[in-house]
Amino acid sequence: MHKLKPITPLGADTPRVDQIGTQTITEVVDQALASVAARDGRRDALQKVLPLILPGVGKTESQSDFTALWTGPDQWMISASHDQHELLAAELKQMVGDTASVVEQTDGWCRFDVSGAALCDLFERLSNVRLRTMAAGDVTRGTIEHLGAFLWRLDDDRVAVIAPRSSAASLHHALMAAAQSIA
């Protein structure tokens, strides 16, 4: 019999936390993810059955246990605590029925929360995303070094970077190098 155990996107038993000067880079592994795409002409019907407001372009919305990030026209990534919503995609599919397509995303993505006083300086070394102009709750798709990623401004001193799990080590390396360059 197999004895499987979960590992983080960086391949460890526990999430990694790095402190470089005033910057902290935290591997986040406690969130379930599912993508939701409204089927043609069904956005209004979808909104009626979901427990949160679907955000507009470049925005996020949080209500009760759920957060929705806009990812494209009539498309969102829904996030919730993994401990409480381990089967998030199945829960959402039951809610939305045929109004939307729902796909499990939890193990397809990695997330790093980056915080610190020089946050904007760090990201100016990594990306052309204009982080200084983003308000809390804004999200955009851009690149970090050569990797496609979502940048989500959590608050003035904290940003979540969400990228494909297969690029977790490269993304972490880029974040670390940029943090070391401003330390």
Q: Assess the beta-strand content as a share of residues.
A: 35-45%
- Cα distance, first to last residue? 48 Å
Give start-end ranges of low-pLDDT stretches: none
- Percent of residues in helices comes to 10-25%
Main sheet record = 6 strands, antiparallel
Total beta-strand segments: 11
Order of helices and strands: EEEHEEEHEEHEEEH
Kindly provide the radius of gyration, computed on alpha-carbon positions and rounded to a whole number of angstroms: 17 Å
| Class derived from helix and strand content | alpha+beta
Question: Looking at the structure, what is the overall shape?
Answer: globular
Number of helices: 4
* Strand neighbour order, sheet with most strands: 1-2-8-11-10-9
Write down the overall mean pLDDT: 95
Explain what the structure shows.
The structure is a single chain. With 183 residues, the chain is of the alpha+beta class. Helix content is 20%, strand content 38%. It has four helices and eleven strands. The protein has a six-stranded antiparallel beta sheet, covered by helices on one side. Strands 4-5-6-3-7 form a five-stranded antiparallel beta sheet, with helices on one face. It is globular, with a radius of gyration of 17 Å. The mean pLDDT is 95.
How would you briefly describe this protein structure?
The chain is an alpha+beta fold and 183 residues long. Helices cover 20% and strands 38% of the residues.
